[in-house]
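for ur thesis appendix - Carbon monoxide dehydrogenase. copy paste whatever u need, i formatted it the way the template wanted (i think)
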Amino acid sequence: MYLPDFDYYAPASLPEACALLAQSGPRAKVLAGGTDVLPMMKKEKIAPEILVSIKKLHQLTGIRETPGNKVVIGARTTHNELVNSPVLQKKYLSVCVAAHRIGNNQIRNVGTIGGNIVNAVPSADLPPILIALGALIKLTGTGGERDLPLEEAFAGPGRSAISPDEILTAVIIPGSSLTGSTYFKFAHRRSGALAVVGVAAAVTMEGEVCREARIALGAAAPTPMRAKKAEELLRGRVVTEELLEEAGRCAAAESKTRTSIRGSADYRRDMVRVFTKRALRKAIKDGHS
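the 3d part is after this line
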């Protein structure tokens, strides 16, 4: 398989890149790591006439903690940079774990957090844990900047809510009182496989009482989604095995699974039940450690 013909641009500034996207409209596609875009072009799933590389936009890299305990991650940050970040290892180890479960080492060296989000693949590993942590994305376009809750960034499989002239520049994890978080992924191979189901959980524990819970599901609906009824079930209650089982059943009922080559809708739904329970148990345990 060969790449189709396209024009290639590597603008030296963010305003230049946004202007080029605004001028080109749907004919253009942003290129970061290329681990999703280039294979899709080879398979003729997409056919952009223009690729706008952001490799020269060095301000879109790096991971830093800011006043207010926010963690800001540049959109060009690679998956292995997430895995090895001292900031994330200290504050949000669950993000490091999710990043490590993406593809293989070669993919993780090139693929970026921004690409994992904007390509809007329902089975992507980073959106669930970032949604569970309440992350925002910073978008920059010809009209200026805006912040958008990550859970509102997806319009459907392969479709995001990002405007054609906008570039995702950063992911922001706000400071919070969360005591524990985790991400569990079920796949058919140990390495490199897409998720059959992914479940992320983040909790705030006060003794044995769950004061706050956020549960995000991947590959369980056309877009990453919150299991809000299951979250509400947990709030203000003493955590028991029976309650975790009930929350798992509730999340499974909320899911919108479909049948694909990787599993039937019923199978996926049951995996949501199982992995929601496991993710909550691990997040709660981490909150007590």
